Amino acid sequence: MNPEVSIVIPVYNEEESLPDLFRRLFPVVESLGRDCEVILVNDGSRDRSLVLLLEAARNKPYVRVVDFNGNFGQHMAIMAGFSKARGDKIITMDADLQNPPEEIPRILEQMDLGHDMVGTYRVMRKDPVFTRKLPSKLINWITNRITGLNIRDYGCMLRGYHRRVVDLINMCRETTTFLPALGKKFAQNPVEIPVSHEERHKGTSKYGLYRLIRLNFDLMTGFSMVPLQGVTITGLFVSAASLLFALFLIVRRLLVGSEAEGMFTLMAINFFLMGILLFGVGIAGEYVGRIYMEVRQRPRYLIKMTYPDDQEAGEKP
């Protein structure tokens, strides 16, 4: 008999956070009064995370562990969890406890009301203002304008998905994706609710500035052609303005004569046009690069072991 609720948690080098996660998560799961399973996906951790995950699976019959062959990223780890989940209601959350497990019942309440996707947005965020809060708000605003998805908080992974939405997500084969946006595309009756947010007490964040920029490029280029179209439109306007300026210079030369003045202005305009050209080439390169990744048709992730479904191979950790 399949469980009603599946909770999918990606784990990457969270050895310090896992004991506290289990201490808070398992009582919540057991107090729900529902048949549940917890799927912990080890995304190629290099610390003792896998040891702790397998220990939890041995102690709790509703815990299952999926062990990757390497590090494939948070979203691919959740995709693997989706492929193993058996529940009608699937909840995702991070392992660092910045998403409190105590919020899970509130998500299930919304799903019981008929919402097939429950998004969340963090209130009273404990992140640094200038390195996380403000950039996050700016990126959310830009992304919503580009994709038209109107998701309030793209960075919060504490979300609920109905089985129908997860099945549609599992049918998608792209190698780079952004699950909250994909779920919002497929949902028929989505809703967003506020959730509390906690400061990371142990361990370090796995999302540096470069990784966050890469993730948002995946989001914008994977769900919209607006960046490419924007560059094209900008190129048309700049070309028209350049033509008008060239005509102005020709007329001015006929009326006034040749002169050396305005050299730095022309250089500045030239550098500006070169910047637009390089930006346009970069945007086009992002799309071409993603096409290249898709046509290779490489596996999105490799599962080494699923416990307890598979027997542990080789030496035990």
UniProtKB/TrEMBL annotation:
The keyword Lyase does not apply. Keywords: Cell membrane, Glycosyltransferase, Lipopolysaccharide biosynthesis, Membrane, Transferase, Transmembrane, Transmembrane helix. Residues 6-166 form the Glycosyltransferase 2-like domain. The chain crosses the membrane at residues 230-251, 263-288. One of its GO terms (molecular function) is undecaprenyl-phosphate 4-deoxy-4-formamido-L-arabinose transferase activity. GO terms for cellular component: plasma membrane. Gene3D superfamilies: Spore Coat Polysaccharide Biosynthesis Protein SpsA, Chain A. One of its GO terms (biological process) is lipopolysaccharide biosynthetic process. PANTHER family: UNDECAPRENYL-PHOSPHATE 4-DEOXY-4-FORMAMIDO-L-ARABINOSE TRANSFERASE, UNDECAPRENYL-PHOSPHATE 4-DEOXY-4-FORMAMIDO-L-ARABINOSE TRANSFERASE-RELATED. This is Glycosyl transferase.
